[in-house]
Amino acid sequence: MSYVTPEEKDAMARLLAVMNGEAPTASAAAPAARQTVMETEEVGGPGVVTQREINAMADVLGKLNKVTQQVMLENSGDAEARMAMHTTRTSDGVKVGEYKIEVMMNERRLAGKQYYRIEHTGSNTVIANDITLYEVALAVVKLLNNNAYVNDQRIRTLFEIDERYTGHRVDAMTAKIHMRRAEKSGDPFRSDVLESRYQKSIDEAMRAKQDIKKVLDR
Q1: Residue 124 falls in which region: left (phi positive, over 0), alpha (psi -120 to 50) or beta
Q2: Cβ atoms within 10 A of the Cβ of 147, count?
């Protein structure tokens, strides 16, 4: 957290005096030589504001604004605002509060080559290591950061949604692979059947994804 220095407080007092038409005075703590320089080179006289004083006031107000925002967010009941303050990118994912979402890669993974692992940064405990949906990983981390336990019903439901989504994605990709083989072998009937299966699996996967918001709204 940033603090306002005595010098900045002095600059603010001097600027306010000038703006009020009063004769500005140098800080009592400043050496006499410095006072002379400030009075002869930097003080514009009653009612006249120098550029240095304007800059000093801007710095002070900027710091006060940052401090105010920090205090307001820390004391806010808005969990989203607090979480945003403690979210940082890492070399292999993102750290959200006390947890890290790590991006994993597997080129041969049918449900998608990119998947996610959740880890508690303080203890290096892995909460989950094969999550297909980033939305699920982020929702779980948000709940954990808000003092939910791993066995919380909402978190268990989110993991079930991810498993359901993953299963439908695998079914869709498998159907697509066999559909292409049927097309190459000249079997249009089988190709049509597999295309329908592929589309149905994709639709089911999207429905599973939509259920994430319902869990968070509970």
Answers
A1: left
A2: 7
pTM of this prediction?
0.61
pLDDT tens column, 70-98? 555 455 455 555 555 577 888 888 999 99
Whether 88 and 41 map to the same domain: the answer is no
Residues 96 and 37 in one domain: no
**Which residues sit opposite 116 in a β-bridge?**
103, 131
- Angstrom CA distances, 165 to 43, 54, 58, 134, 159, stand at 70, 59, 53, 12, 10
What type of residue sits at position 27?
S
State which of 22, 46, 75 marks the end of a domain.
Answer: 75
Contact 67, 80 (CB under 8 A): no
Sequence-separated (6 or more) residues with CB below 8 Å from residue 149: 155
The answer to whether 100 and 149 have CB atoms below 8 angstroms apart is no
**Claim to verify: residue 103 and residue 45 sit in the same structural domain:** no
- Interatomic CA distance for residues 74 and 95, integer angstroms: 18
CA atoms within 13 A on the CB side of 115: 19
